[in-house]
């Protein structure tokens, strides 16, 4: 099974049944950004991730350097930037999705609710359960719609009221009405947009706290893309969402906060760095770095 084939929350080995389940904490109402003592109101929220001086390497190659930022609860945070600037590497570092890649390593620190994601006491299975992931290309398993959504809960021993759990996940992913009469049909018979919403349902079936989405709509048609964007608005009341997108209009439509990464050079080396991070409106209308202004104006990328 390749890394891309793993679903959100997919365990490396099944956990024993009957362990304590950690529920998602109740969500906060959405607030709009207003400056409070010169700070964005978003920055007064609880930080889900506190990332300090993160660097990521594939063997000797540095893909990302010197990344420091906080990701706030119940917001949509977009990650934008030109191809190869480390966007995927960045979000895959947040839930240790790259651990299976030989030679991959990170330096610096990623604190998740105060816990070191790469610390010696971190439980990788639990990290993946709490921090779910959806990929660019919908990747349902060749199983029924029901079994796709039930897969991770079953593996994690969350078997009580499984049918309810599957139904709730499909409702939250705005797919229930379209599939409720054919739950036992193959997931591969769904359209691309439906498959992607199924992958979102599969991710949320294990009650994560964070959803990481790596260009989730870039393989979809405009109608399916719009339904994924609508879904982001609804899901952020329950989850903290980090979305990588190539599409700047999409970032402007869905994200409360935007992080712009770019490629930096040091001699022959090229690596990704965080150039600017702030409220989406500021990044798109009043960025302080000229590289951000050029990128959002479409002058490179
Ligand atoms: N599995 C991998 N093995 C080796 N290098 C990789 C791997 N994945 C990405 N890279 C390298 O890391 C850099 C950043 O890639 P990536 O995070 O995929 O950027 P983006 O998502 O912004 O396009 C690129 O130079 C890319 O070639
Ligand atoms: Mg990428």
Offer a quick outline of the entry.
By secondary structure, the protein is an alpha/beta fold. The chain has helices at residues 87-94, 124-130, 145-155, 162-172, 176-179, 192-204, 222-235, 248-254, 280-285, 290-296; strands at 35-36, 39-40, 47-58, 61-72, 76-80, 104-112, 115-116, 131-134, 210-214, 240-244, 257-266, 269-279. Helix content is 29%, strand content 26%.
Task: Provide the descriptors you would attach to this structure in a database record.
disordered N terminus; 26% strand; 10-stranded mixed β-sheet; Rossmann fold; alpha/beta; binds magnesium ion; 301 residues; 29% helix; binds adenosine-5'-diphosphate
Bound molecules: adenosine-5'-diphosphate, magnesium ion
What is the domain tally? 1
If you compute it from the alpha carbons, what radius of gyration comes out, rounded to the nearest whole angstrom? 19 Å
**Major β-sheet, in short?**
10 strands, mixed
Would you give an account of this structure?
The chain has one domain: P-loop containing nucleotide triphosphate hydrolases (Rossmann fold), CATH 3.40.50. It contains 10 helices and 12 strands. It has helices spanning about 85-95, 125-130, 145-155, 160-170, 175-180, 190-205, 220-235, 250-255, 280-285, 290-295, and strands at about 35, 40, 45-60, 60-70, 75-80, 105-110, 115, 130-135, 210-215, 240-245, 255-265, 270-280. The strands form 2 sheets. The chain has a 10-stranded mixed sheet, sandwiched between helices. The protein has a two-stranded antiparallel sheet with strand order 1-2. Helix 6 (about 190-205) runs parallel beside helix 7 (about 220-235). The chain starts with about 35 loop residues before the first strand and ends in a 5-residue tail after the last helix. It binds adenosine-5'-diphosphate (ADP) and magnesium ion. Adenosine-5'-diphosphate (ADP) binds next to helix 1.
């Amino acid at each position: 099974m390749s890394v891309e084939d793993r679903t959100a929350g997919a365990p490396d080995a099944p956990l024993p049944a009957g362990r304590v389940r950690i529920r998602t904490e109740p969500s906060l109402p959405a607030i709009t950004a207003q400056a409070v003592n010169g700070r964005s109101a978003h920055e007064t929220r609880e930080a889900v991730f506190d990332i300090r001086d993160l660097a990521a390497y594939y063997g000797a190659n540095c893909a990302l350097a010197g990344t420091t930022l906080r990701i706030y609860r119940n917001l949509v945070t977009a990650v934008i930037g030109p191809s190869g600037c480390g966007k995927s590497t960045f979000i895959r570092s947040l839930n240790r999705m790259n651990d299976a890649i030989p030679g991959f390593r990170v330096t610096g620190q990623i604190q998740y609710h105060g816990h070191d994601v790469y610390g010696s006491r971190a439980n990788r299975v639990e990290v993946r359960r709490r921090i779910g992931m959806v990929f660019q290309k919908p990747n349902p398993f060749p199983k029924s719609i029901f079994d796709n959504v039930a897969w991770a809960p079953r593996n994690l021993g969350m078997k009580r009221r499984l049918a309810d759990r599957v139904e709730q996940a499909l409702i939250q992913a705005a797919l229930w009405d379209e599939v409720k009469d054919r739950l036992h049909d193959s997931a591969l018979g769904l359209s691309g947009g439906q498959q992607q919403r199924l992958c979102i349902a599969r991710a949320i079936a294990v009650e994560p706290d964070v959803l990481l989405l790596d260009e989730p709509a870039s393989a979809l048609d405009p109608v399916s893309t719009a339904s994924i964007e609508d879904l982001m608005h609804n899901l952020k009341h329950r989850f903290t969402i980090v979305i990588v997108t190539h599409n700047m209009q999409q970032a402007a439509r869905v994200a409360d906060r935007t992080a712009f990464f770019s490629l930096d050079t040091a001699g022959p080396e090229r690596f990704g760095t965080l150039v600017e991070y702030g409220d989406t409106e500021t990044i798109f209308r009043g960025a302080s770095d000229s590289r951000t202004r050029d990128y959002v104006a479409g002058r490179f990328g």
